[in-house]
Amino acid sequence: MTREPDHPVIHILDQATVNKIAAGEVVERPASVVKELVENAIDAGAHSIRIELSASREKITSIRITDDGCGMSPADAELAFVPHATSKIAAIRDLDTIQTLGFRGEALASIAAVSRVTLVTKQQGSGAVAGTKIVIAGGTVKETAGIGAPEGTSILVEDLFYNTPAREKFLKSINTELAQIHTIMEGICLSHPECSFRLFYNNHEQLVTDRSTRSLDTIARLYGSDTVKHLVPVDLSFPIMTVKGYISQPSLTRKDTARILVIINGRFISSPLISGAVRAGYGTLLAKDRFPVAFLLLRIDTGLVDVNVHPTKKQVRLSREKEIAEAIRKAVSEALLSQDLIPAADSPVQAAVSPPVMLDKQLAYTYPITEAAAGVSESTHAGTIDSDQRLRQTELLTGIPPVPSKLPAIEVIGEFGGIYILGRTDTGELVIIDQHAAHERILYEQVLLRLKGEHQSQELIWPVILHRTPKERSILKDLLPALSLEGFVLEEFGGETFIVRAIPVVLGRMEDAGIIDEIISDLISDAATGTVNNRERITRVIACRGAIKAGTVCSREQCQRIVNHLRLTQNPYTCPHGRPTIIRFSRGDLDAMFKRT
Ligand code: ADP
Ligand code: MG
């Protein structure tokens, strides 16, 4: 930048520009509008809040929030849109004891700066005095009028970001935006069970909660009674805080922390510290890569919680955070200790994973229990059958083009720990192969091959019904085209369910509702975070879920089949996630390790 002498280049921005810039912090996306307006309605003491979304194919076109709260007088209604105008605090010290969700006085001004807003409000108990209607576009008041209206407030937001095209460009697909709105609404519904919420999307009801004093009612409404069955109550008090809520039994887990919902003093927040403490409370009850489901309602001394660190208040700063984290860990751990956590034999989680009887018989015939195997526990026998099933599937697929193998010929000499295959190469080396990673690689390449040609699917004998939350439904809908290319036949089945009629051939005869459910869950949670495209993601998940699990002891013959197939892959060296599949030691390497020189 060049500056001419004596020519001032700095000037103060006009108010409209200032407002648009400030709006960028509070109003990131449609979900921010929903959050701010619903929080205002809660602060206004509403008992019933209605959220109506309309959308075209590409974007959300309008958001209307209607409440039966205290409403505003004509004078307040005009002031409400002025930046930093608030009825909730008068001075900074008020923040130490803040009871309301809002206090910055920024939301209405920010929203009005980047959209067209129509406010209709009437103060509770104002009797014959008319209500007020105000229309504002891009921060400029277009109309103010008296109007007959019910008590309470209704705010309609249209054409969001119409005057900030840069922001509009960054919006994600409509389903991603809807998923964000659902995430926020789930948190808000849970933090305010005393309020009833109804969310409509293009006039279809998407989410309803009733007023209740029990958060478990709200949880059941949002996540279904299946989830509730697997929850354990938490309730422990400490000098500085109380921990209440529900956490999952270790049998109900997820791949990420997305369903650890944390509410501090009525505010839905995201806190890696607290999610970490919840998980820590499970100790070794969870596998390394699994996370619990938890709904925690924390009451912490308001003096220890600084809510003013983030424009949207999504994060808070906690004083004495170590103490708080430890209290949460302890509360979770004690809640679990008080429970009998061995899943009942007839629990749905268990029932879902036992294979259909027909299949079992068929395989038992192919693999009669030998004398040696008779002493083996049932689960190991079932494991062998399962592995065989998975392997056979890989082999049934034809069309692998013969490529010169990048690996030498390998003779299997044993296995170790149900995880590693030990082998000897024809070039005189010792190799160690990760069984799961190798099989994953094999499946992955087979799925990719199929992508080029036509996909193959196989019908399920018993279609599998999947129950999904509204948010997950949105993500799943986005994935449907890619899933069908892959060989899944999946349809919406009205209400909250999807029905799976067929799965890719490569997944084998997995007539197993549990596994299919897990595959879809993986895809959904991946899609919310992942960076790779949908097809790649689906391919990886199919490969991972279809592959023989680590810890499954395979017979020598099974190991040999895995190795033979690995040799036929294009890239036999790593699994689709980049972990090595094979490590080799030459005679020289071993000699050096044993100091044989
Ligand atoms: P804040 O919530 O931080 O005070 P907002 O810009 O969100 O700031 O709202 C400004 C003011 O408008 C609020 O302090 C409140 O007095 C009033 N207001 C906003 N929404 C409503 C509503 N739904 N019902 C009643 N009053 C409202
Ligand atoms: Mg507000």
Describe the model.
- There is one protein chain.
- The protein has 597 residues and is α+β, with helices and mostly antiparallel strands.
- The protein has four domains: 15-209, Histidine kinase-like ATPase, C-terminal domain (Heat Shock Protein 90, 2-Layer Sandwich); 230-337, 2-Layer Sandwich (Ribosomal Protein S5, domain 2); 349-450 and 548-593, 2-Layer Sandwich (formyl-coa transferase, domain 3), CATH 3.30.1540; 457-546, MutL, C-terminal domain, regulatory subdomain (Ribosomal Protein S8, Chain: A, domain 1), CATH 3.30.1370.100.
- 37% of the residues lie in helices and 23% in strands.
- Strands 5-4-3-6-2-1-7-8 form an eight-stranded mixed β-sheet. A five-stranded mixed β-sheet has the order 9-10-15-12-13, with helices on both faces.
- A hairpin with a 2-residue loop joins strand 7 (196-201) and strand 8 (204-209).
- The longest helix has 19 residues, at 378-396.
- It is elongated, with a radius of gyration of 29 Å.
How is this structure best summarized?
The chain has 597 residues and is an alpha+beta fold.
Topology:
Elements (H helix, E strand, L loop, with lengths): L14 H12 L3 H14 L4 E8 L4 E8 L6 H6 L27 H7 L2 E7 L8 E7 L2 E8 L4 E7 L6 H5 L4 H18 L4 E6 L2 E6 L5 H9 L1 H5 L1 E7 L3 E8 L4 E2 L5 E5 L2 E3 L2 H10 L9 E2 L1 E7 L4 E2 L10 E2 L2 H17 L10 H4 L5 H10 L4 H4 L3 H19 L13 E7 L3 E6 L4 E5 H18 L4 E11 L2 H16 L3 E4 L4 E8 L8 H17 L4 H13 L9 H12 L14 E4 L1 H7 L4
Parallel strand pairs: 1-7, 12-15
Antiparallel strand pairs: 1-2, 2-6, 3-4, 3-6, 4-5, 7-8, 9-10, 10-15, 11-14, 12-13, 16-17, 18-19, 19-20, 20-24, 21-23, 22-23
